[in-house]
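Minutes, project check-in
Item: structure for the 319-residue chain
Input as provided by the requester:
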Amino acid sequence: MDLRRKRVLVTGGGGFLGSHLIEKLTERGVRDIFVPRSDEFDLRDRVVCREVVREQDVVIHLAAKVGGIGLNQKIPGELFFDNLMMGAQLMEEARLAGVEKFVALGTVCAYPKFTPTPFREDDLWSGYPEETNAPYGLAKKMLLVQAQAYRAQYGFDAIYLLPVNLYGPRDNFNPDSSHVIPALIKKAVEAKANNRPYLEVWGTGSATREFLYVEDAAEGIVLATERYSSPEPVNLGSGSEISIRNLTHLICNLVGYNGDIRWDSTKPDGQPRRKLDTSRASHEFGFKSTTSFEEGLTKTIQWYKSTISTEKEAVPVTV
């Protein structure tokens, strides 16, 4: 698919991943891009979904209500309902409007809690997701069911991508809703700025995670949009794995913080392990991440520091 000739709707285009995706599309020569903003277009409303897909050729659905373990524990009902309604109604209205292609972004949280490592797409239905993020993960997983059902019944070209945990510049650093990398960067930077003797981290540090640099993820989504058309879900990841303990030490080292790290084992670790099998993305549409983890973390830390460089001192964070 030559996207330069298409009208492309990107939900969530003003967000973390979305802003990088817009840049990738623009680099490809795509000029007709519509980004509906959440303060004007509430995608939980089916009438609004009908309005935004009108006369669009391609829909890339990134919009989501999402956060770390704390937010998932606080508002699981909202995360389930809002994500389910946005995705299901948007895809249905896109089908009815004659949209040529629908790209649905799922989540690694859709995988069962105890999935054999590396996670293969065929293992998606081999168990229940990790409890702390199951409502969100299952809501997003329904987009895969819907995409496959619509392809089977209507011949609708809907694809489903499963990105692993993303990180990079413009990430969400709000401690109430951020994921692990921005949360740790914020804590380490502020602990150093305020000469704190230690910082506290949730869990035991034993859980492992795979991370994908956001610009690489955006490139993967564009490649899939251009080249992939199949009912099978596809992982997007880097293929590498690191424990939260080692991640914390790496971030502290890159930030230059030399204090102690205290682990709050009363807080959950989340899913024990996460590492994806990324061979399908490589085989089907030639995607492979190109940014090394340390390089990506360095860029992310530099970006975060630049956002607070005009402040006289870092704002204290509760740890």
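Outcome recorded: The two ends are 48 Å apart (CA to CA).
No further action items on this chain.
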